[in-house]
From TrEMBL, chain A:
Keywords: ATP-binding, Nucleotide-binding, Translocase, Transport
Pfam families: ABC_tran
Organism whose genome encodes this protein: Pseudomonas sediminis
SMART domains reported in the protein's UniProt record: AAA
Record-annotated ABC transporter domain positions: 5-227
Record-level Gene Ontology MF annotations: ATP binding; ATP hydrolysis activity
Protein name (database record): Sulfonate ABC transporter ATP-binding protein
Domain of life, source organism: Bacteria
Recorded family membership: Belongs to the ABC transporter superfamily.
Automatic annotation (TrEMBL), chain B:
Family designation: Belongs to the binding-protein-dependent transport system permease family.
Residues that span the membrane, as ranges: 79-102, 114-135, 141-160, 172-191, 203-224, 236-255
GO biological process: alkanesulfonate transmembrane transport; cellular response to sulfur starvation
Endpoints of the signal sequence: none
Protein name: ABC transporter permease
Pfam families for this protein: BPD_transp_1
Amino acid sequence: MSALLKLQNIHKAFADVRVLEDVSLSLAAGEVVSLLGPSGCGKSTLLRIAAGLDQDYQGGLELNPLLNFGRGSGIGVVFQEPRLMPWLSVAQNVGFADGWVADDQWVEQLLRDVGLHGRGDALPKHLSGGQAQRVAIARALYGKPQVLLLDEPFSAVDAFTRMKLQDLVVELAARYEIAVLLVTHDLDEAFYLSDRVLILGGTPSRLQRELAVPLTRPRDRRSAELAYLRGEALTELYQSHVL
Amino acid sequence: MGALNLVIGRWAERLPGWRPALSDLRGWVVPLLILALLETLVRSGVLPAHQMPAPSQVAQTLYLLAQSGELWRHLNASLLRVGAGFAIGAALAIVIGTWVGLSRRAEAYLEPTFQALRAIPSLAWVPLLLLWLGIDETPKIVLIALGAFFPVYLALLAGIRNIDRKLVEVGRLYGLSSLALVRRILLPAALPSLFTGLRGALSLSWMFLVAAELIAATRGLGYLLSDGRETSRPDLVIAAILLLALLGKLSDSLLKAWETRALRWRDSYQGGEDGA
Ligand SMILES: Nc1ncnc2c1ncn2[C@@H]1O[C@H](COP(=O)(O)OP(=O)(O)OP(=O)(O)O)[C@@H](O)[C@H]1O
Ligand SMILES: [Mg+2]
């Protein structure tokens, strides 16, 4: 199957500072791929390019024509912060793409999916950080995307909420058959969630490694296989001086 | 003061639904005391009645004005002027402010001019407006609009420039056109500043109304002021001042109520009851 989203030989510089050099990656349908790397290595930058928010780069961004079916762009984005419109209710935020003519039933369904059933009329100021992030996830899912781009969506919540949100995203991605590109700097998260883990690093950043996680779902965080794969990866990364 | 507070507090506890209304009564204490003091001072002859009329006499003047129908004529004239001037000035400011806020190019062309115009104290326009536009309604409304324009324009511009870039990016993500971006993100996000500007503009509108009516008018509260001075009737002057205060406060309260409703979503510090 051809890729849904393909980044080819991306070079990106801010003024004279080169941030990304020759980064290529592709995302196939239904696949979960993690992008891992130290702070400031350009993960968010790469994701913004993939989302079409940054046009000022060299290289190619190829979107599968399949993405243009259905409503919206076929790509949902969850940022590092919830970025909800504070003047809109939770439900209005979820249906933001359609404004006044949002599909209320679908909004309702999504709120149920993210565990916020009945909170549609609340204002963002009445939500906790984790709830706000769940609203942001529901908003990203509203356009029935085939690709979900997540930029460290769980970094601002506590460990328990994070685990719940991780499971939520995996489950929703599976249910709605969405391919996920997840930016993270958490090795556990990357291995638990993804089929492939891409390691970004160096100055300017290049793709250092691609690690496969050949485990079936649902996965168990405590499973020995997961721990083993993670341990192997860590060893390899240390030995090759990537970390 | 403490005792009174306590008494009002007790009433309030018995009538839970009335609690906010009753605690607002605290604001009446000082004005009522001042009125009572004035009344005694004037009646006992400490203050000369031809300079400082007793509150009761002012009330009587107001009553007579209302009965003869004069009052409504003046109120009507003033309200129409302020309403028209404020609406025109604020609407222009919203349109131009949004445009300048959105476009660096518009800002480069227009900002220096507005800066220069703003440096002119608005009352300095009065003679020119009278020369150009005569002494009927137009110059008054233009003057008020001029006064209302700048507070709204400046506040809105600052509001738009302070909008979180990250929210605008969400709009771009959903492919909003620039008009939709203005309507759905920029204006709502700048609404708190806009309301601050509108309220400033409203109080300036009343000020400019008085200026305009003092100079050339045959109706209106400003005319009542100058008429009272010319006929040596301080009660008339004070009645007009009271009416101006009342209308100013009333219109500001309306705007404030609207602001509170429109900005319910805001997550900001509301102040504590006993101070921090
Ligand atoms: N608008 C910008 N102008 C100039 N430099 C920028 C800009 N945005 C990002 N950078 C630089 O690009 C580099 C990569 O930034 P980016 O936000 O992509 O990092 P990141 O990998 O997402 O980091 P983190 O894990 O902390 O979120 C950083 O060194 C940053 O200083
Ligand atoms: Mg980042």
